[in-house]
Amino acid sequence: MTTYKIAVLPGDGIGKEVMPEALKVLDSVGRLCGIGFDYTHFDWSCETWLKTGQMMPEDGMSQLAQNDAILLGAVGYPGVPDHLSLWGLLLKIRREFDQYVNLRPVRLLPGIPCPLANKKPGDVDFWIVRENVEGEYSQVGGRFAEGTEAEGVVQSAVFTKLGTDRILRYAFEMARKIGRLHVTSATKSNGLYHSMPYWDERFAAIGAEYPDVRMDQYHIDILAARFVMSPERFDVVVGSNLFGDILSDLGPGMTGTIAVAPSANINPEKKYPSMFEPVHGSAPDIFGQNIANPIGQIWAASMMLDHLGETEAAALILKAMTDVLSTQNAPRTPDMGGRAKTSDVGNAIAEAL
Amino acid sequence: MTTYKIAVLPGDGIGKEVMPEALKVLDSVGRLCGIGFDYTHFDWSCETWLKTGQMMPEDGMSQLAQNDAILLGAVGYPGVPDHLSLWGLLLKIRREFDQYVNLRPVRLLPGIPCPLANKKPGDVDFWIVRENVEGEYSQVGGRFAEGTEAEGVVQSAVFTKLGTDRILRYAFEMARKIGRLHVTSATKSNGLYHSMPYWDERFAAIGAEYPDVRMDQYHIDILAARFVMSPERFDVVVGSNLFGDILSDLGPGMTGTIAVAPSANINPEKKYPSMFEPVHGSAPDIFGQNIANPIGQIWAASMMLDHLGETEAAALILKAMTDVLSTQNAPRTPDMGGRAKTSDVGNAIAEAL
Ligand SMILES: CC(C)[C@H](C(=O)O)[C@@H](O)C(=O)O
Ligand SMILES: CC(C)[C@H](C(=O)O)[C@@H](O)C(=O)O
């Protein structure tokens, strides 16, 4: 029996409520497929920060490095400035483990009311490939003339050729892998004078290596509009850290609830562990009621299995999830219009396996 | 009779097709309300750039300065790099005339098929206040290590206190003016380490001057999702140059067609002329067929009249526009599902006056 070492980081808020459901489902599928999981639990969170001024201990990264993968809940809580909690945990792990690919499906699932008119499962089904470690997310910059009338702040985005080329290449490879030979690039080269013309240039250069893949590019403003107006036209969408972030919340929003969407932070070379999390945040407003939707976390666990090479187990989770969603009387959390508890949904999916 | 000096800049592509319709409607409403328009036509465009290497002549800005307002079509055409055409004309005018407010309505109009399920006019109706002259749109930065493996590019956003405070204040004033005491700020302070925490800080500070106005803030990713999931909850949304840009295409996209949406580039102090344009671009793909929707340009003309203090004439155009859209057999351009020509729509609105 293969056993995987998994770092379990529920983090803050509803992260703590949805994580047990994902582990429940993992254990079920593990029994079914003869896979073992050796969990190490980490309670790093905003509470840690309030106590210690750090989101993780000094040797936190080397503790994580001993695992095959990381399953993360959500990070961020009122009382700790967002940029400190995120740069101290989520963004730190993405960067230091060179998880330069963020991969997110945008897929309309059965049984979820869709805010778009006349769409059914199958109509919205594509992938977002997001650059995950550089670009607009950057600590380069700072304040000037602080305390005077001339005060202000500079925020510098840094795009490297290495970082840009490898994410673009991943998108083209992904298009081939899923057999949908079409990549759409998010740009804003009309407004952002230096970064996006460079991005476009690299998109053209890397695209030339994939003559079999059709290329499209749109400015991020009109691209966001087209997501809503004609989601059918997308297959693989590639974007910078910020643009990918925006599109990969908008996409799940369009499909009814961001609570079901997963996010894979991948180091494709497997030099470091990759990290899997739901797209949603820690949702302080609903924390404590046990009504958070665990499906994003469960789908993230499925993506983790896929990454570990356990494709059959990954597919089984996805199928159980879809089966439950397709069932008329299945438990649904309030975000999907139901009254079920977090654990009801987790139980239903674990049983469906 | 008051006569206004108007600089008319059709620009590129369909800008040239929709502009005559707006002038037609302006002339009609002028006759009705006793307002005169003294048009000066400027043919500055990407063709100018191809001939001269500049988007406008050396004394272009002082020619424009002699007008009470500028009516612009669209800028940008294949063959001229977008960042050169835009920074040479549209963005140059916004900046040099200190049009620091970009004001855009997001409003579902009658008779336009809406991509959102179960929405009717009235359900989607709010304003976007966008910072228009600084922030992410910046020429600060450049390439490093060009031609080597270490190549890359830095793009610096600059936010000043002056620039941030005045746009936030405008948003709060706007909320009071329209009697909807609620402002939502677009942020991304969890990822953008320097700029957005500063933006949030200023939002809190300026908001404290408006205790009667309810304040909300969302990260841009989840905000985009919420636009689609619950557009009813917005009244005035304020965002940086880039975030405002994205939201103000997404908004109109949600209401069926970005072709009807207008954009006002305002210098509130009236030290310089303000500029009015449709949200859509030059649309090279449909240029030359006379099928572009002129409603965005016509609505922009209405916003221009509003700014000039001709509120009655402005309202008449809006009413004529809405009346035509509400009429079952009114001419509709292909983007609205019809087969009408650009000029049919312009004629119908001019006649409805
Ligand atoms: C053409 C482009 C530079 C412009 C912008 O990004 O401001 C446009 O998208 C707009 O919104 O007016
Ligand atoms: C929490 C935040 C820093 C993060 C991001 O912007 O990357 C989140 O929105 C995401 O998409 O994973």
From TrEMBL, chains A, B:
User: What are the names of the required cofactors?
Assistant: Mn(2+); Mg(2+); K(+)
SMART domains given in the database record: Iso_dh (SM01329)
Residues in Isopropylmalate dehydrogenase-like domain copies:
5-349
Q: Which UniProt keywords apply?
A: Manganese, Metal-binding, NAD, Oxidoreductase
Listed InterPro entries: ICDH/IPMDH (IPR050501), IsoCit/isopropylmalate_DH_CS (IPR019818), IsoPropMal-DH-like_dom (IPR024084), TTC_DH (IPR011829)
- EC assignment: the record states 1.1.1.83, 1.1.1.93, 4.1.1.73
Q: Does the keyword NAD apply?
A: yes
Name its pathway.
Answer: Carbohydrate acid metabolism; tartrate degradation; 2-hydroxy-3-oxosuccinate from meso-tartrate: step 1/1; Carbohydrate acid metabolism; tartrate degradation; D-glycerate from L-tartrate: step 1/1; Carbohydrate acid metabolism; tartrate degradation; 2-hydroxy-3-oxosuccinate from L-tartrate: step 1/1
Catalytic activity, as annotated:
(2R,3R)-tartrate + NAD(+) = 2-hydroxy-3-oxosuccinate + NADH + H(+); (2R,3R)-tartrate + H(+) = (R)-glycerate + CO2; tartrate + NAD(+) = 2-hydroxy-3-oxosuccinate + NADH + H(+); (2R,3S)-tartrate + NAD(+) = 2-hydroxy-3-oxosuccinate + NADH + H(+)
One Pfam entry name? Iso_dh
Q: Which domain of life is it from?
A: Bacteria
Function, as annotated, reads: Has multiple catalytic activities. Apart from catalyzing the oxidation of (+)-tartrate to oxaloglycolate, also converts meso-tartrate to D-glycerate and catalyzes the oxidative decarboxylation of D-malate to pyruvate.
Q: Which family does it belong to?
A: Belongs to the isocitrate and isopropylmalate dehydrogenases family.
The molecule here is called D-malate dehydrogenase [decarboxylating]
